Amino acid sequence: MLQNNMLFVLICCFCAKTKLLNAKTLPEQLKASEVDSGKFSQQEATLTPYFSTEDPVKSQNISIQAVEEKTTNVSLKSSGASVPLSSGLSGLFRIPLSLSLDSVDDMYYGCSEKMLIKVKRQFLPRRTREGLHTTYTTLCAIKGMKNKDTYDLLSWDHFKALCAYTAGSYDDLNRAVHKGKASYKSSFEFHALHFLLSDAIRLLKLNQRSCYTTYRRSKLLFSGESGQTIRFGSFASSSLNPYLNQFGRRTCFEIRTCFGAYLKSYSELDSDEDEVLIPPYEMFNIVSVDTSGENHLNCNVVYKLENAGIYSSLNCQVVDL
Fold first, then answer.
1. Can you tell which superkingdom this protein's organism belongs to (predicted)?
2. CATH (domain of 192)
């Protein structure tokens, strides 16, 4: 009888431990400040540039050299003929999908509190093109604060950033982010908006599901291949609603994002757009390319993307300047 009781206790302990590991979702781990050997840790650690989300407990770290080698191989592979397109599209200019290594991809891991102080003291007082000081942004932020869920940790400045971005600053910001790596520590003009959006995504993600399936539409034509690893290289708006045809039918993306945050009613977009904002540092694998023009999204080309971790080459490189 004693042996049976001990066996029962051991089984219960094992089950409880397994349940705890399974319940440890990625958003909960994002509360930690650093990435250490593939795990988020509360202790100080050296940030590695890649974090795979397939298994949060046993995730793989890859060096910067490995990512750069992968990018070189992809660029060589994509330099020739790309996926065949249906007639009528073959002569159109195509924007190549890539890892966007020239983008501003700061994640602020390990320095978010310090960066927030710097933003408030140094960057927010400046009158720039970020759109953070307009009357429209202020009124929108007031509305957001009134409607804020009690468990969301967004501040007044986070709401101003979300309002500024969705109200129109996204175009100027994303142009600067996409090619701004070289100027990030000198003449980059969007430090406040970039940080506040990144931090808002992080805070919203703490109380949201691990991953979302979202959709992104474009009136432009993109080129990429199955097996390729890419980043959008800017803040990428996507939606839980697959049928927002007004945003385009030429190229569509079906995305499994694990770092994008659902903006709920906090943006200036219509409520039926159900926006999920994807940060510049999230990577995706292209798992399939549909160029038949006959698909459930009614798009000329559909790229199906799966989360492939995160990659940041500029983490916390401005906070101490």
1. Eukaryota
2. 3.90.176.10
